[in-house]
Write a structure and sequence with these properties.
The chain is α/β, with parallel strands linked by helices and 150 residues long. It has 5 helices and 7 strands. Helices cover 33% and strands 27% of the residues. Helix 2 (75-89) packs across helix 3. The protein is globular and about 45 Å long. The termini are far apart.
Length: 150
């Protein structure tokens, strides 16, 4: 497995460390809340890079070498961060995968900066509230003793 490399993207009062794997069309991988998108995505990134994609993993503000204000931060700000990464390193347009919290950033990016997005992939996306019946489903799926109900 090839070791990832890092580059920094600079904005106004902003420095984002971006892990880069491979070359080719850009795929952005956005991590879940409070995660780096480093080790969590290393295996997937290396496999996708081997398939001919350039995987860009921007580290959120406050993670790894990324720095920027956290005061009054909104999804719009986080989406603008990713738009900057796409402009500087992704050839201007990219597919964006948002995992868990990253799905909100991916969706906001598609709304605020549609010219930067080829498409989005939502992984482990969730709503802020779901019915109890739906909420218990993943736990039932992992319980081998639970009866199957349709």
């Amino acid at each position: 497995m090839q070791k990832r490399r890092s580059e920094f993207v600079l904005g106004v009062n902003l420095k984002l460390e971006v892990y880069i794997d491979g070359t080719g069309p850009a795929l952005i991988m956005l991590p879940s809340y409070g995660r780096s998108g480093g080790e969590d995505f290393d295996y997937s990134a290396s496999q996708l890079a081997a398939a001919g994609l350039m995987i860009l993993r921007p580290q959120p503000r406050g993670i790894a070498g990324s720095e920027g204000s956290m005061q009054g931060l909104t999804l719009h700000d986080l989406a603008a961060d990713i738009a900057l990464v796409i402009r500087e390193l992704g050839g201007g347009k990219a597919i964006v995968l948002g995992h868990a919290f990253g799905n909100g950033v991916a969706r906001m990016l598609a709304v605020d900066h549609p010219s930067r997005v080829h498409g989005i992939i939502l992984a482990a996306a969730q709503c802020s509230s779901v019915s109890p019946e739906i909420s218990k489903t993943p736990h039932q799926a992992c319980d081998l003793q639970s009866p199957i109900t349709l």
